[in-house]
Every structure is written in C-alpha cells, then in structure tokens.
Amino acid sequence: MNFLDPQLDNYISGHTKPEPLHLHQLNRETYMKVLQPRMLSGHLQGRVLSMLTHLIKPKMVLEIGTYTGYSAICMAEGLAESGHIHTIDINEELQPLVQKYVALTGNEGRITMHIGDALHILPSLKEPFDMVFIDADKTNYLNYYNLVFDQLPLGAVIIADNVLWSGKVIDPAEIENDPDTAALVEFNTFVMHDMRVENVLFPVRDGLMVIRKTAHRI
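Above: the chain sequence. Below: its structure as tokens.
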C-alpha cells in the first residue's frame, strides 16, 4: 500500500541515493523469479536499513526473515569491522539465490544463513546481538521479540517491518478477522507499553518500528 501521493513517493525515491547495481539486479531477479516479490525491502527501505546500520555500526546482527537476501546485504554495508549477520528463513528454495548475491557482494564471511523455523533456531544463537531486524511471519513477531530481548545488550536496536500492514492495523474489521493484523496490533501495543525500551514508528513503506533497549527489566 502506498501511503503517500505517487508523485511525492517518486520525489522521495528520486532524492534518496540509488541502490547499488548488485541490489538493483537482485531486485529485478526477485520480481522475475520469486513469488510475492513485494516482500522485498526495495530501494527506499533498503537505504534506510543501510543508513541505520552505518549509524549503529553493529558487531552482530540478527535478521528474522531473509527472503532473497536484499535486506541482509543492505545491513552488511554498515557492519562494524569483523561484524557478522545471522539471518534465518524457513524457505530453503530461496537459499541458492541468497547465496548467489551474498557471494557476488563479497559477503560470504559476513552473512550466515540459517534454514528452518526461527522459533527453533533462535535459542541456539547465543551471540549478544546489537541489532535485530524482524521481517517474518507476523503472528510470531511478539514471540521473536521476547525470545531475543534478554540477550540484547543495553542500547541494542530492534527494527520490525510491516507494522502498519497496509493500514489494516487501524481497521477494526481487519483486527477482528485477520490473524496477522491482530498480531501486529498486539505487537505494536506491547512495544508501546514496554518500559524497557524507547520506540518510534516510522511510516517508511509499510511501517518500521524502531526500538532501542534502555533497561534489562522494569
């Protein structure tokens, strides 16, 4: 869903640094070959993720929801020296495409892809992640948040995608009848009342909730 007038949206894209050629190629290949290509982060959101990662300079990043690897490659641009990204996706059919572009961008040693259910994989990852990007099945957003929160150091940043869900989060009928919408409303409400964090919901693309951990417990 476009929340902005198309002309204004084009103006914003035209005044945002273009995506690198390899990401343009990945974008195009995703739209040509993969189902639901709108799941791709894309130009504007990819540049936002790259900018945030450059500002945070994380040593260890966790991504829940790899898709075709676009967002992971964007975040790799701003990693600290010797930084690393662990990215999880349940769809093993996408792994060859991800690996192709991870290799093309020289990130083989910086991005590790895990295939499987994130709820099962997350407990095995013990690294102190200082940045987390959640962009997977919406019904488990709050579960993912709770699973990783305790191992995050103070100042760590969690970014959750799609939290506006095409505007459905303010539609009572959608909240009542659509499990994904209801789960996102529950997640947004929980974060808003979590005294351990500071948060801002940015109306970037389909909504980015940016959360900074300020306390280990209330």
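The first strand starts at residue 60 and ends at 64.
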